């Protein structure tokens, strides 16, 4: 009776975590970064959730066939997770493996007769499911040292190894040792159920964490906070400069073809490229300049220099940007366009300087890119005519 209750309790815990995993995977992973990897991961957790509901319902109502078939369907989830990671790593996904294993295992366990046939069937499908966990570890190890050092994937890799070892030991033990009754199999079920809880939790961390990081969700908060700090500091400096009438300028730099770079090289590469853009600007511009990034692929610099010096800084910066690359992952040479907004033309309001500088940068990009454009009457007229449109 105690073992049965423990099984139901574990089943309820599995239902809770698989439901949470499905909601988070669809809401954070798939909707934020739709694609084959997040789609396969969503299917994996949805399958685990539905199968777990079936196991719990079978335990509570005494419908043994439903419980056994649901246990079998649950075994297809590790294969779908593996397919998702292979798709993420630009490898052939073999997505058919998950549905085939789920259907085959559900039929095998659902149609098995008494415990004499069900026990070896369960040990076999559990072992097959663990093989896909091992395949994930193999593919993960083949990705190189960078992937092996990924803290989000490391817990899943460790628990996948434990999954495979447990599945192999369980499979071999079923043939080496004679079964002593139902107690030994009940222990196997408890161990596998508890292990599945840990496995789903680690898979959730890997899937949602990786997607959030690669899509820039975590970086967005950091960028926003840093940009707010830049705005406060720059506004205060411009206010002081206005009293002394010193020459200041705002330079707005933005990647040409940013959308194409992000799509072809991937979000992680674009984030790293954006960080290198900001580092380049900080390196070229004087130390007393303020530098901030309002969004990925764009950098703003507040420069306390005369206009002749700003021209030289712009020329040097644009040349340095063409030399940027991220581990050779970019399909095209990165270039940027710059908009130059001097206080001698527009005054000392930061928002005005940034806004007109951005418009000048986009005008430079429309003219072919890899160049700079100084804010002039033409830029102002473009902004005015745009604001007058209905």
UniProtKB/TrEMBL annotation:
The chain crosses the membrane at residues 12-32, 39-56, 97-118, 124-141, 153-177, 189-209. Keywords: Membrane, Transmembrane, Transmembrane helix. The keyword Transcription does not apply. This is GGDEF domain-containing protein.
């Amino acid at each position: 009776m105690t073992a049965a209750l423990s099984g139901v309790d574990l089943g309820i815990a599995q239902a809770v975590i698989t439901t949470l995993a499905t909601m988070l995977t669809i809401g954070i992973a798939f909707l934020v970064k739709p694609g084959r990897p997040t789609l396969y991961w969503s299917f994996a957790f949805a399958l685990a959730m539905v199968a777990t509901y079936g196991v719990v319902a079978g335990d509570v109502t005494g419908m043994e066939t439903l419980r056994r078939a649901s246990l079998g369907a649950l075994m297809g989830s590790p294969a779908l997770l593996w397919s998702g990671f292979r798709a993420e790593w630009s490898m052939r996904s073999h997505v058919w493996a998950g549905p085939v294993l789920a259907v085959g295992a559900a039929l095998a366990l659902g149609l098995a007769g008494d415990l004499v046939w069900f026990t070896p069937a369960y040990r076999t499908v559990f072992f097959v499911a663990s093989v896909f966990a091992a395949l994930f570890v193999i593919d993960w190890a083949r990705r190189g040292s960078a992937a092996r050092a990924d803290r989000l994937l490391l817990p899943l890799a460790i628990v996948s190894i434990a999954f495979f070892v447990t599945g192999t030991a369980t499979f071999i033990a079923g043939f080496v040792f004679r079964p002593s009754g139902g107690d030994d199999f009940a222990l196997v079920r408890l161990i596998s159920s508890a292990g599945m809880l840990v496995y789903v939790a680690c898979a959730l961390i890997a899937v949602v964490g990786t997607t959030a990081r690669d899509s820039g969700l975590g970086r967005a908060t950091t960028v926003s906070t840093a940009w707010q700090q830049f705005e406060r500091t720059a506004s205060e400096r411009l206010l002081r400069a206005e009293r002394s009438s010193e020459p200041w300028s705002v330079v707005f730099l933005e990647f040409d073809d940013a959308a194409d770079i992000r799509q072809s090289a991937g979000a992680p590469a674009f984030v790293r490229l954006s960080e290198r853009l900001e580092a380049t600007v900080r390196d070229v511009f004087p130390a007393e300049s303020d530098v901030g990034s309002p969004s990925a692929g764009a950098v703003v610099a507040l420069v306390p220099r005369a206009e002749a010096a700003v021209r030289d800084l712009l020329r040097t910066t644009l040349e340095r940007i063409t030399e940027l690359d991220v581990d050779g992952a970019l399909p095209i040479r990165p270039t940027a366009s710059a908009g130059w907004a001097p206080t001698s033309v527009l005054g000392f309001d930061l928002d005005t300087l940034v806004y007109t500088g951005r418009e000048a940068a986009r005008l430079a990009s429309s003219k072919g890119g890899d160049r700079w454009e100084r804010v002039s009457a033409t830029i102002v007229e473009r902004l005015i005519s745009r604001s007058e449109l209905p």
